[in-house]
Amino acid sequence: DVQLAQSGEEVKKPGEPLKISCKGSGDSFSKFWIAWARQMPGKGLEWMGIIYPGDSDTRYSPSFQGQVTISVDKSISTAYLQWSSLKASDTAMYYCARLNTGLDYWGQGTLVTVSS
Amino acid sequence: QSVLTQPPSVSGAPGQRVTIPCTGSSSNLGAGYDVHWYQQLPGKAPKLLIQSNTKRPSGVPDRFSGSKSGTSASLAITGLQADDEAEYHCQSYDGSLSVVFGGGTRLTV
């Protein structure tokens, strides 16, 4: 069975860097795009970008281009989402999900809180 | 502002039927891209509920159904139950590999 396990909750200060992870199980990790989505408190889902673990091809939503970096280490079936300098407005739940016919498997989410 | 438009909330009594619309444009739903629906229970990650407009993944009750026509899509839930209370999200594409979501609809039973 496919599982996506995300790293744990993070509490950071504005200006700090952060990298969160999404580890996949099963042999198929490299064969499907992995998407990242943001959900701010009380709001809907926002697509941030996707990455293909097979060749690291990455696409970003225009809203997040230049704001975050998506990467992958296919040798350990793990995708990453990182910030070089967090802002308070980055406070949100972040989800990874496998893109198949729709987003068919989701991680449990990583809550990121940015506060001084 | 989400690319796909959903009402913020809908409600229905137990046993009733409700529908949740999702409206797009000629660059996404109207371009022939499929719509997918997700159910997000309180405090949980979203779960795929309807894929490719009308298909239910294994384990999803047939009380849930989807439809799509032109630039609009709809999720229908019949025989409403208390544990259907959740946020429902529609999702499609706006160009190849450009994912778009609706703003989400909170269902109150």
Written description of the protein model:
By secondary structure, chain A is an all-beta fold. Chain A has no helices and 11 strands. Chain A has strands at residues 4-6, 10-12, 18-24, 33-39, 45-52, 57-60, 69-73, 78-83, 92-100, 102-106, 110-114. The model of chain A has no long low-confidence stretch (mean pLDDT 96). Chain B has no helices and 9 strands. Chain B is globular. In chain B, strands 1, 3, 4, 7, 8 and 9 form a 6-stranded mixed sheet that branches. In chain B, strands 2-6-5 form a 3-stranded antiparallel sheet, with no helix packed on it. By secondary structure, chain B is mainly beta. In chain B, β3 (36-40) and β4 form a beta hairpin. At the A-B interface, β4, β5, β9 and β10 of A face β7 and β8 of B.
Q: Give the overall pLDDT of chain A as a whole number.
A: 96
Pairing-aware structural class of the strands and helices of chain A?
mainly beta
Q: What overall form of chain A do the CA principal axes indicate?
A: globular
Oligomer: heterodimer
Order of helices and strands of chain B: EEEEEEEEE
Output the helix-strand order of chain A: EEEEEEEEEEE
Total count of helical runs of at least 4 residues of chain A: 0
Let me know the average pLDDT of chain B. Answer: 96
Number of strands of chain B: 9
Computed CA radius of gyration of chain B, to the nearest angstrom:
13 Å
Largest sheet of chain B: 6 strands, mixed
In DSSP terms (H or I, runs of 4 or more residues), the helix count of chain B works out at: 0
Unreliable runs of chain B, pLDDT <50, ≥5 residues?
none
State Rg of chain A. 13 Å
Structural class of chain B: mainly beta
Which chains share the greatest interface? A-B, 22 and 23 residues
Distance between the termini of chain A: 40 Å
